[in-house]
Write a structure and sequence with these properties.
Distance between the termini: 58 Å
Bound molecules: 3-methyl-2-oxobutanoic acid, zinc ion
Structural class: alpha/beta
Helix content: 40-55%
Strand content: 15-25%
Radius of gyration: 29 Å
Largest sheet: 8 strands, parallel, barrel
CATH topology of the largest domain: TIM Barrel
CATH architecture of the largest domain: Alpha-Beta Barrel
Number of helices: 16
CATH superfamily of the largest domain: Aldolase class I
CATH class of the largest domain: Alpha Beta
Number of strands: 18
Strand order of the largest sheet: 2-3-4-5-6-7-8-9
Shape: elongated
């Protein structure tokens, strides 16, 4: 039987402490529900003494949580501990998590306390917490820079006072895997009552080692890992939950541990957090980044098409992602190009395929990423470069504070110039209405419109990205111009060209 490792998620406490990541009550409740549903064992919901808002969110998370234990953080002072007791009252299962610094640097400069006083505070805080709750976690802040003899005494004191979990944080992300392994091992060998508590890891990522250190801690005897979704947290963040969980699953041969996490919910949790905080993860982020299961080079794509195991150590489905993404770009080969077309239900004969592949390579040299609708454009063009049936000719608008605004748009469709006038709610709306008159496309709707400045100053170039949606298919369009209304028309024309190309390919 593999040993269970308890997952203690601190996305809502340590994670929320990172600049720009604060969440409102409703967002915290959404995230907590997700964590509970995916099988997190302990949800650290906040620091109730820190603010009224924190107190309320710990209280509400306690009310709604069905399976997980809800923990609240507190300093080693009674008023803080009482705040956790009150805030976690509605929880089915709750934990008081109290901490104090143990390193010489922190004791001298931050606490301004003698080590003997720190030991007294550990005894006092943990025993007080334990009177009110059977589940008490004690943390030695800055444990990895603490003298070993003192750390052993502090841990022994906490367990003697009633701590059921002892957490050994690498608060400043300073340790390295071998050293952290030795530290945890040392505690298992030297603290006489260590068998009465679970040892926990809590590693920060300042040197990019948080997950490696946490795993080393587990190998040495820890059975709880503190972590966060997407690895968010103070400074460089905490150990990323998805990485810890998937390492146990993928390298079970070397790390025979199990967690209660339903790994298929990992992607949804990551995306929910990104949506709530407005920070997406970097594309190459392990497990949850956009490129984590994407393959672009020809050799890799060829391997993947023959056997997924060639370049994937876990399946995208195992973390709740749709499927492996063969991204077409300048490194892609003919085999991947053909497979992607088949996925788009386009079956070309050898001759057509060769010609389309040559056009694709030509475009890929000039464009970073080739989207599905680019492929449709490539295939629809009979020779040379992708054909664009519509091109922009001219635009005149009447805009201003008194509506309706009007646009007179001229385009060339298959080489024939055409002009139309329309009124709308704003000049962009008027332009798009004129476009509908010139090239009817009743089944398509504007799905997304984004405008951003590419350069600075009042003469900045504006870039418009739009998406047209038709029968569940999305067509992208980009346009750049110093006049944002012209940029909008160019973007619309770009998207419409892709839509027309798709019609001709699928006709
Ligand atoms: O990093 C740390 O030391 C902490 C403790 C409060 C557990 O977050
Ligand atoms: Zn921390």
């Amino acid at each position: 039987m593999a040993d269970k490792v308890w997952i203690f998620d601190t996305t809502l406490r340590d994670g929320e402490q990172s600049p720009g990541y604060s969440m409102n009550l409703d967002e915290k409740l959404q995230m907590a529900a997700m964590l509970d549903d995916m099988g997190v064992d302990i949800i650290e919901a906040g620091f109730p003494a820190a603010s009224k808002g924190d107190f309320e969110s710990v209280f509400k998370v306690s009310q709604q949580t069905k399976k997980a234990t809800v923990a609240g953080l507190c300093r080693a002072v009674r008023k803080d501990i009482e705040a956790v007791i009150e805030a976690t009252k509605p929880a089915k299962k709750r934990r008081i998590h109290t901490f104090i610094s143990t390193s010489p640097l922190h004791m001298k400069h931050k606490l301004q306390m003698e080590p003997s006083r720190v030991l007294e505070m550990i005894e006092d805080s943990v025993s007080y917490a334990r009177k009110h709750c059977d589940d008490v976690e004690w943390s030695a802040e800055d444990a990895t820079r603490t003298e070993h003899d003192f750390l052993c005494r502090a841990v022994e004191t906490a367990i003697h006072a009633g701590a059921t979990v002892v957490n050994i944080p690498d608060t400043v992300g300073y340790t390295i895997p071998d050293e952290y392994f030795e530290l945890i091992k040392m505690l298992t060998l030297r603290v006489p009552n260590i068998d009465k508590a679970i040892i926990s890891t809590h590693c920060h990522n300042d040197l990019g080692l948080a997950v490696a250190n946490s795993l080393a801690g587990v190998e040495a005897g820890a059975r709880q890992v503190e972590c966060t979704v997407n690895g968010i947290g103070e400074r460089a963040g905490n150990a990323a939950m998805e990485e810890v969980v998937m390492t146990f699953r993928t390298r079970h041969d070397k790390l025979p541990f199990v967690t209660g996490i339903d790994s298929k919910k990992i992607t949804a949790a990551s995306r929910l957090l990104s949506k709530i905080t407005g920070f997406s993860v970097q594309p190459n982020k392990a497990i949850v980044g956009a490129n984590a299961f994407a393959h672009e080079s020809g050799i890799h794509q060829d391997g993947m098409l023959k056997h997924a195991g060639t370049y994937e150590i876990m399946t995208p489905e195992s973390v709740g992602r749709d499927k492996t993404d063969l991204v077409l770009g300048k490194h892609s080969g003919r085999n991947a190009f053909r497979s992607k077309l088949l996925l788009l239900k386009i079956d070309l004969n050898e001759e057509e395929l060769n010609a389309a592949f040559a056009r694709f390579k030509d475009l890929a040299d000039r464009k970073k990423k080739i989207s599905d609708d680019d492929l449709l454009l490539i295939v629809s063009s009979k020779g040379g470069m992708p054909s664009e049936r519509i091109s922009f000719v001219s635009l005149a608008v009447r805009s201003g504070s008194v509506g309706p605004q009007e646009a007179e748009l001229e385009i060339a469709l298959d080489g024939q110039k055409k002009k139309a006038k329309a009124a709308g709610k704003g000049p962009v709306d008027a332009c798009f209405k004129a476009m509908k008159v010139l090239v009817p496309h009743e089944d398509a709707t504007l799905f997304n419109y984004e405008l951003k400045a590419l350069t600075q100053g009042s003469d900045a170039k504006g870039e418009v990205n739009i998406q047209l949606s038709e029968k569940g298919q999305i067509y992208h369009g980009d346009g750049v111009d110093t006049d944002v209304i012209v940029a909008s028309c160019r973007a619309y024309i770009d998207a419409l060209n892709r839509l027309l190309a798709a019609h001709s390919v699928r006709a």
